[in-house]
Description:
The protein is 72% helix and 1% strand. By secondary structure, it is mostly helical.
Amino acid sequence: MGFGEILNGFALAFIPVHLFACLTGCLIGTVVGVLPGLGPTAAMALMLPFSINYGPTAGLIMLTGVWYGAMYGGSTTSILVNIPGEAASVVTCLDGYQMARKGRAGAALALVAVGSWIAGTLGLLLLQAFAPPLGLAALRFGPPEYLSLMVFSFVILSALIGESQAKGILMLSLGLFLGIVGIDPILGIPRFTFGPTILLQGFNLIAVAVGLFGVAEIIQVIVAPEALQEVKRVRLRELLPNAEEVRRSIKPTLRGSILGFFTGLIPGLAPAVATFFSYSLEKRLSPHPDLFGTGMVEGVVAPEAANNGAVVGALVPLLALGIPFSATAAVLLAGLRMHNVEAGPMLFREAPEIFWGFVAAMYLGNLMLLILNLPLIGVFAPIARVRPQLLMPIVSILCLVGTYSIRFSTFDIWVMIGAGIFGFYCRRQGFPVAPLVIGMVLGPMTENNLRLTMQMFEGDFLQMVHHPLALLFLASAILFQVFMGRRTRISTPRRRQ
């Protein structure tokens, strides 16, 4: 993969429909990030039906623009209102709002925007370096290697998503079950349909995702509406940081960018976790750790850089291996499949123009977001004052229209509503919903590779010893589980001495 591929990608990215898709995705993502509560997963799920008309490249660009824009926009309310626009911006509240109280809101927003642009650019350079070689190496993977890799992913996901490992495993298992409801792909017979023919087509992933993340949020607002807070006004001339703030931001931005990217490569470690890692690292390296939480610029720029770096890092296993490590990546994978494009090793051989056009468009989108989040901050900030009672009816209509337009099925509407009620209950009880969505995506893939492996080995799994890479993944899964078990026993306080 050389310089010619990226040039062809830029030629593809400058096609008007791709530029429009990129700008649309970035705008919608920024607004979603500014609005507290409505996260990028629900927004991307709602945009899926609209992306179908633009083709696979434009659709992928638009959806990733929404995801990426939400990472940018989430910092706005964290700094100005002390309310995180989405989960990955929680850490930004700690020092960002304190900078705003000191009259440095404009400087904080400017440094975050530039830091996010740097993180995105570095992440895309690393994506170019890692994804194509990994995809070509994965061409050598057979069913045993894919099966063991998915087992390894499941072990990490169940341990790291959510506060309780048992709850994470339960939700992941439920997602695996829902993903295989319908027609058996090999035998062609119904399974787990319990009679109704409507279940022969299975559960629609998008209907479930919109319900879990969109409808559940609507119910949450109805039950416990949040009081609006005053949004601090920021003038354009206040966006210029001083020389000392710029100097202190350079190293934390670079460290956060690299740390965030490699955190995104690990299953289960969402951008929110990357921000906590980055914040903790800067606090440990700082000569004044006791001042964190009082308006330290390092505590603002580093987590936001890690946030954006993790988004790009998560695209490497998605595009190179076809395996999503987060609910948002799962929705993105569903979008590719709707366009009959299969992410994974064959993407670089059969449709390299999609990958390189996407990479080039994200360079442009990263620049668009920098422009949007600097001079137009005065336009986006007041969006945070929109009352949820006015916003949620609009979101409800979008949920209904977006879900129905995928398969034109009223059954999907009922699935969406049921998933929303279930998602609201899970929030109240502390059950993570992201593993359910990931399980629905990985369930059919795991099943197919399991059955193909059984056919290859003729039922004798001892033949796995002839596949060293598969054994490596399985051994890593066992070691990780042992490590987590030991850590849990150590951290559990003794009830009686």
